[in-house]
Amino acid sequence: KRANEHLSLISQQEAERWGIAAFVGKSKTIAEILNRVRKLQHAGTTGVLIQGESGTGKELVARALHFGGARANGPFIAVNCSAIPSELAESTFFGHVKGAFTGAHANRKGAFELANGGTLFLDEIGDMPPELQAKLLRTLEDGGITPIGATREKRVDVRVLAATNADLPAKIRAGQFREDLYYRLAGFTVTVPPLRDRKEDI
Q1: How far apart are alpha carbons 192 and 160 in whole angstroms?
Q2: What is the rounded distance in angstroms from the CA atom of residue 188 to the CA atom of residue 116?
Q3: Is 24 exposed, middle or buried (0-12, 13-18, 19+ CB in 10 A)?
Q4: Long-range CB pairs of 21-25, under 8 A, 24+ apart, other chains included
Q5: Is the pLDDT of residue 6 over 60?
Q6: How far apart are the first and last CA of the chain?
C-alpha cells in the first residue's frame, strides 16, 4: 500500500511537470492544440501522430497525453528511432533472450515490454528502417511481441504515440514508409507549429 501511495505521488508530480500546465502560450494555435490534447488524453488505446519541426515540443505533447490520461501510473518510454543502430533496432524494440546472438549475455526487455501498461513514444518515426516497420505494424495489430531468440510470444498493452518532422506521405510515395503503418499510427494527428508562426506566444 505504501509503495502504491508513493507511486501515485510520483505520477501526480510527473503529471504536474509534464501536463497541460507545462505549456506556455496564449495564441489561438496553442489553445487548439491543448484542446485536442485534452480530448485525446482519455483515448487510452488510440494512436496519435505528432507532427512538427525539431524543437517545437512534440515530446511535451506526448508526455501531456500520457500523464494526463488513464495510463499516467504506467511507464512512459521514449525511443528516438533515428539514433538506433540498425543491427540493434529489433532488440531495442522487442528485446532478446540470453544467447540469441553474440554478445547477448542476459535476457533483455525491449521498449514494448518496458512500456507495458503505459505509453511508448516513438520519436522520429520516419527514420525507422523499412524491415522494422513491418514488425511494428504486426505488434500494433495483435498486441504481441517475440523477443529475438524466444519461441513464445508475449502479450503487451501499450499505447503508441509517434512523432516526426518528416513528410510521411512523401515518404510513402517514395516507398520509404509503409502506408498501412502510417494509418495505424495516425488514428489522430496533432500538428505543432514553430514559434515563428505564433509570435504572440513569445
Answers
A1: 18
A2: 21
A3: exposed
A4: 22/60, 22/64, 23/57, 23/60, 23/64, 24/201, 25/198, 25/200, 25/201
A5: no
A6: 45
Helices within the chain (DSSP H only): 2-18, 28-41, 58-67, 89-94, 111-114, 130-142, 168-173, 179-185
Q: Are 70 and 98 in contact (CB under 8 A)?
A: no
Number of residues assigned to the chain:
202
Task: Quote the cell numbers at residue 111.
Answer: 521498449
For 22-33, what is the mean pLDDT?
87
Q: What pLDDT sits at residue 183? A: 93
Residues 163, 123: contact at Cβ < 8 Å?
yes
Residue type, 33: I
pLDDT digits (tens, 9 = 90+) for 74-126: 999 999 998 888 788 889 999 988 877 877 788 889 999 999 999 999 999 99
Residue 24: the pLDDT is: 80
Span 141-175, pLDDT tens digits: 999 999 898 888 999 999 999 999 999 999 999 99
What is the phi/psi pair of residue 185, to 5°?
Answer: -75, -35
